[in-house]
Amino acid sequence: MHVRECDATTVRVPFHVGEDRSRTWVISRTDDGMRLKHDHRHEDGTEDEVTQYGGDTATPGSRSRQVFAADEHTASIVPESASNLWTLEIRAGRSFVYALRREGSNRRVRFEFDLTRPIDEPPAPWGS
């Protein structure tokens, strides 16, 4: 993962898996809090069939941790994800954490990225 774009309202964080550069987390400000979207692209830059899913914060969170609840768009394209909660956490200078919890199930995903080991400038995500 790397922060590729950042301005006053939006942060784009591509997440590469080997040569697969299809995923970008998009974190933006809303009138009431923050929004997390998952932008999935094909190699030619076109949107994947399952893309732009995510949700908004329901509580203010903190400077270092935010929790996003699945929105209506997410429920409409992936019904089993309607109860998803995503967490983003930054441990300044140490790690960036992305986690997914599906309420009412045992589904849990957690990625922790070591910020003490910077990477060389990676290639652009697909569609960029």
Describe what you observe in this structure:
It is a single chain. By secondary structure, the protein is mostly beta strands. It has one domain. Helix content is 5%, strand content 48%. It has one helix at 72-77; strands spanning 5-6, 10-17, 20-29, 34-40, 53-57, 65-70, 84-91, 95-102, 108-114. A nine-stranded antiparallel β-sheet has the order 1-2-3-4-5-6-7-8-9. β1 and β2 form a beta hairpin. The longest helix is centred in the middle third of the chain and has 6 residues, at 72-77. It is globular and about 40 Å long. The model has no long low-confidence stretch (mean pLDDT 94).
What secondary-structure arrangement, pairings included, does this model have?
Blueprint: E1 5-6, E2 10-17, E3 20-29, E4 34-40, E5 53-57, E6 65-70, H1 72-77, E7 84-91, E8 95-102, E9 108-114
Antiparallel strand pairs: 1-2, 2-3, 3-4, 4-5, 5-6, 6-7, 7-8, 8-9
Supply the number of helical segments: 1
Distance between the termini: 15 Å
Q: What's the number of extended β-strand segments?
A: 9
Q: Write down the overall geometry.
A: globular
Number of domains: 1
Strand pairing plus helix content: what structural class? mainly beta
Summarize the main sheet: 9 strands, antiparallel
Proportion of residues in β-strands: over 45%
Radius of gyration: 14 Å
- The neighbouring-strand order within the major sheet is 1-2-3-4-5-6-7-8-9
N to C succession of SSEs: EEEEEEHEEE
Helix content bin: under 10%
Query: What's the overall average pLDDT, rounded?
Result: 94
Instruction: Outline the low-pLDDT stretches.
Output: none
